[in-house]
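Human:
Class, as today's exercise, you are to examine the entry below, and be ready to discuss the fold:
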Amino acid sequence: QVQLVESGGGLVQAGGSLRLSCAASGRTFSSYAMGWFRQAPGKEREFVATIDWVGVALYYADSMKGRFTISRDNAKSTVYLQMNSLKPEDTAVYYCAQDSATYRNGRLLRQGEYDYWGQGTQVTVSS
């Protein structure tokens, strides 16, 4: 059974940084692309970033480019999201997700391309 467990969320002031982690188990982590999504109160879940199974192909939503960095450690079965220069509008529940197919390195922007999701971690940015 696949499990994804996020951690690292919290309360931070605007301009601050947080690093989210997502520990995966249940299938060969290094075979799957991973993604981060977020959902703000009253809004739909949106794409944040994705990383391919090797850790070379990285894609970001436009509003996150230059501030967020996605990375992975296949030896630890963990994907990370480093978030810098946080803004109040970054406040949301952040979810990690695992690709539904192996060895893909495309722009996996849609939620339907992922078949397992974590429970989410809350990020709150105060002004």
Observations:
- The chain has a mean pLDDT of 96.
- The chain is about 0% helix and 55% strand.
- Residues 73 and 117 are 18 Å apart (CA to CA).
